[in-house]
Amino acid sequence: MKNQASSSQKTSKVGLISLFNRFISFEKGSTFLPPFSFGVWIFFLAGLIPSLIVGWIIYPMVLYSKQPQPMNFNHALHLNPEIVDGIEGDTETERCLSCHAFREDGTFAGIPKLDKCLECHDDPESPLGETPEEQEFLTKYVAEEREIPWLSYYRQPDCVYFSHIAHVKMGDQDCETCHGDHGKTEKLPAYKVNRMTGYSINIWGRNIAGYKTNTWDRMKMDDCAECHTENDLEENNACFVCHK
Amino acid sequence: MEINRRHFIALIVGGAAGINATPLPWKSTDDIAIWTQNWPWVPVPPTGEFSHVKSICTLCPGGCGIEVRKVDDRAVKIEGRTDYPVNPGGICPLGMGGLQLLYNESIRFTGPMKRVGPRGSGKFIAITWDEALSTIAYRISDLRKQGRPEALAAIDGNPTMSTMASMIERLLKAVGSPNYVRIPSAEDTCRMTNLVMQGTEGPMAYDLENADYILSFGSGLLEGWGAPGRVMNAWGLWHEHTAKRKARVVQIESRASNTASKADQWLAPKPGTEAALALGLAHVIIKDHLYNADFVDAYSFGFNNWASSDGKKHMGYKTMVLNSYSPDQVAEITGLIPKDIVALARDFAGAKTPIATCGKGKGYLNGSLYEFMAVQSLNALVGNINMPGGVLVSDPPPLSPLPQTQNDTIASEGLKKHRLDHAGSGRYPFSKSLIGDFAKTITKSSKSPVNTLLVFSANPDFTLPDGGVFREALKKVPFIVSFSPYQDETSYMADLILPDHTYLEKMDDVVWPTGLQYPLYGISKPVVKPVYATRHSGDVIMQLAKRIGGSVGSSFPWKKYDAVLKETFLG
């Protein structure tokens, strides 16, 4: 300890660069005594690297629980007007609305109920396609008149008032803006839910750092505000617009 | 290399630096904040399609109109209907909280049950409807075989004129038992009062909305008296700032009830002396010539002394109250101050449309016939009967009576037996049923004269103010069947539970909501599908009758209770 104290006194006039050199120098026996030995650095890294691994890799794995959907649904197939009769509309949004419809009172129905499926799949004995998913759907749900317990990826928490019709009809937003290419997927992704908050992973975003490249990557309050601001609708960022 | 303190510090600093360079602390902080906003026990309404179902509330005989908001199949809110004549938008706290009665599993029976523990312990095991029905059908058939069908008795809490009440009475008649006992209600005494004083057995109705002085003899106007949605609404009208003349509410009640504390004036006579006070008021009104002489002359009998056809002289009402009920005498009886009695009488007689109401509390106890007559005579003195803002007397609504039961000899013999409660006998000529005497007869007998007791829509073990006599009677009855949807004191004493639907799950009727100015027939409809494996008691009675068979079965020709309702309201 004495050595160190005296050496720092010695180098007080050397300046910043040499101070830095001294700080990073591992050379033994050099005129500048290294403040930290090689061993100390090893221990530092032994603390740093595992904690980075824990924080970036293990933490997200532990934080989110993964639940499979009750069955697969092929959005790409169902959104193809050449295959499916009931799908109408010139734009992608209109085609989405064929099933994810608005009710008469303007509220959004969200994930369709079994009734909607039955508009086409009305006979459990005669499948319309050849997929095993459809077979499962017909025997497990249609025949037993049971609702499919879908897990919703995009539901905002109860404290948030979100109106689809205000955004889709008045705001002229495409479904894609918030829901990405969900309508083009052939397989439903696993539903991941935050163990602590119970929110779907799509709210925070799939990137654990909260980093986003697309508008649909994240659905936190700042993302709502960002879009409102971009569209000169800053008045909609007032608290009571969404937190009623 | 020697490991020293410095190395450990380096490890910790490295770990701390590393963890802070990851999302772990920052996201965890955010998530913990969110977690504290989402406690799992905080109820969150379900998401789904909103719908509204209109029905009427049958929790009490008031029959208010309700609108139930639903999210998909789940009922989430009960509100008063604004388009229903009984309760323009109003609803009582119980009606508003009715979903608790529907969805609170811990207070309901989820299916038919058989008692396994001692009586009152609430230990039951689930059985099938088939087993439950055959058990009870066998017992009743057995009683009939033994030639003592009168050992079957029923206690019924359904409103007086309701179709359910007539179905239960019909079952007893068809089996051959006169022991159909009703839960007492102030409405029974109102009917008796009307029968004795007006010559009609219709219910007592009050034009509360147009009255400007309400002299309430213990009526819980804010506590569920009459049709609560309507009465509370009327209370609002009386006190509206824009009203031309505000109504004055005077509460005569020995207890500081909510109504008493909110009334313009509260007088607390000694309990049970209300009739004397009413006659004391009459004394002042007659002495000061404040009564409506035209009305009294034209429409009353026995006001002055009179002689019957055999030449016998009788004391009239006037002489009686002038002799025996002076303010000083009444003050002695009631414990009130004489000048208060005089002032109250003058206020009452001086009002434009005064009403004196009777029926204490919610009207769930029958009360004294003499007291009701004394109060009704005040209404007659001020001539406010069948007038706007007065007491209205009319006949019951013209509903079709159900066809006669087909009684075989066993039933006819059984019906000739005396009622266990002596109602309708020389001692109680005007009473239809007396549950207190029914219980006393059982407790006094060495062996219970009732073998099988059916209890419908009532919890007499809890509600009767009889100091536990009814409970003692229940202990002696060999077999008790409860049709209650709820786990309550009486059903805990039962041997067999055949749970009814709750009021939001079934179709039923309310004939003439209590105290409404005009006859009204309301039908409730199922708001939600039955939550549990319960059955409508009306249907169960028919299924039971069919199992007993013979003339009992053929007395119930309908398939479903709905068909009975349809036949009734055709009028």
Give your account of this protein's structure.
The complex is a heterodimer of chains A (244) and B (571). The radius of gyration of chain A is 28 Å and the shape is extended. In chain A, 12% of the residues are buried. With 244 residues, chain A is mainly alpha-helical. In chain A, 41% of the residues lie in helices and 3% in strands. Chain B is an alpha/beta fold and 571 residues long. Chain B contains 23 helices and 20 strands. In chain B, the strands form six sheets. Chain B has a seven-stranded mixed β-sheet with strand order 5-4-18-17-16-6-7. Chain B has a four-stranded parallel β-sheet with strand order 11-10-9-14. In chain B, helix 8 links the parallel strand 9 and strand 10. The longest helix of chain B has 17 residues. At the A-B interface, helix 3 of A face helix 1 and helix 2 of B.
Task: Spell out the key features of this protein.
heterodimer, A: 244 residues, mainly alpha, two-stranded antiparallel ribbon, 12 helices, 2 strands, extended, B: 571 residues, alpha/beta, 23 helices, globular
Described by strand count, sense and barrel closure, the largest sheet of chain A is: 2 strands, antiparallel
How much helix is in the residues of chain A?
40-55%
Give the spatial strand order of the biggest sheet of chain A: 1-2
Strand content of chain B: 5-15%
Helical segment count of chain B = 23
In short:
Chain A is mainly alpha-helical and 244 residues long. Helices cover 41% and strands 3% of the residues of chain A. Residues 1-11 of chain A have low confidence and may be disordered.
